[in-house]
Amino acid sequence: MKIRLLALLLVASHSVQADEGCGEVTIADMNWTSASLMANVDLFILEQGFGCKASLVPGDTTPTSTSMLEKGEPDIAPEMWTNATKKLLDQGVVDKKIRYGGASLSDGGEEGLWVPKYLVDQYPEMATIEGVIKHADLFKHPENPDVSAIYGCPAGWNCQISVTNLFRALKLEEAGFDLIDPGSSAGLSGALAKANIRKEAWFGYYWAPTAIFGRYEMVKVDFGSGIDIEEFLTCTTIDDCESPKVTMYPPSTVATIITETFASREPQITDYLNKRSFTNKEMSVLLAWMEENQADGEGAMEYFISEYPEIWRKWLTPEVADKVASAL
To answer: Which residues, in sequence order, are CB contacts of 213 under 8 Å at separation 6+?
Structure first.
């Protein structure tokens, strides 16, 4: 009788565990738009597809990294721009406190000097810096008709240093360009949007993924130099570097970070987090939709899950994907 009772208790225990799915899991909801979208996507998929009891916790790059390493929470940081905390994170991997999951943004975070795609369609050589310089007269300066315009970063932004050094390295002043401080993020995006709406020439700094790149197609200008990491780190990004050389911007690695405890406990979810990835174009389109519809991360998640099954189904087994779809 005791043996039978013990067997029944074991069966009941396994049933409760099965119903509980993966148990409790915490996900960092970072304070920028793409990361909040990603966090809400993970929340929905983990709850509906894997049966987790998931919750979002506020996050930001440095405090979330530190908390995962020191306290083992949150369990998942869906979109971590790793350049700022790379040494810390790498040591955490060595110490078996965290793991790198897949690339949140498969293209990495992109920076560069850009021109509108319709310009490259008309003048294919404009995909290169030589082509831009050749057609310098098309890039009208808003205040001085005697020079051409390149839009840089607002004062105080780190990218102002790199753009200024590249302006010197590419000898753009000698080519007739003036480097414009747009004054603010709104000033920079406003100038880019205005040019696209009017189908005018525009040349300047921007980054991806962003909502504005979801609305307007832009082409990153090729300097013909490739990426020189050492030059970028020791000169391009250093204020008043004496002799800057030409280099393309290296992509910023953007990855999912998972605590080792959770990754070891939940290999199926870890497999999902290794596969869950957006291209910059996909994310830019979603960010544009969020901006146009004034949607938060949860609203954007619902739109993404309902409208883009061809993207997220690739991250999941058919069984789990069907559970997610039916939950809508």
So the answer is: 206, 280, 281, 284, 288
Q: Detail the DSSP E strand segments found in the chain.
A: 23-30, 52-59, 76-81, 98-103, 110-116, 148-151, 177-180, 204-208, 218-220, 254-259
Residue 193 identity? A
Cα–Cα distance for residue pair 322/276, rounded to 1 Å: 17
User: Model confidence over 82-118: pLDDT tens digits?
Assistant: 877 888 999 999 999 999 999 999 999 999 999 999 9
CATH code 3.40.190.10 region(s) in the chain: 21-107+253-327
**How far apart (Å, rounded) are the C-alpha atoms in residues 254 and 257?**
10
Which string of DSSP letters, residue by residue, matches 197-244?
HHT----EEEEES-HHHHHS-EEEPB-SS---HHHIIIIITSTT-SS-
Nearest alpha carbon to residue 170 among 136, 194, 196: 136
Distance CA 154, CA 161 (A): 10
Q: For 30-39, write each residue's pLDDT tens digit.
A: 989 999 999 9
Helices vs. strands in the chain: H and E counts, helices first: 16, 10
What's the pLDDT score for residue 4? 42
Question: Is residue 6 pLDDT above 80, yes or no?
Answer: no
Domain spanning 110-236 has what CATH number? 3.40.190.100
pLDDT of residue 20: 52
pTM: 0.84
C-alpha pair distances (Å), 219 with each of 15, 113, 208: 55, 9, 11
Cα–Cα dist 238/235, whole Å: 5
Q: What is the CATH number of domain 21-107+253-327?
A: 3.40.190.10
Could you identify the residue written with the tokens 């280099």? 247
The strand pair at 218-220 and 98-103 is best described as unpaired
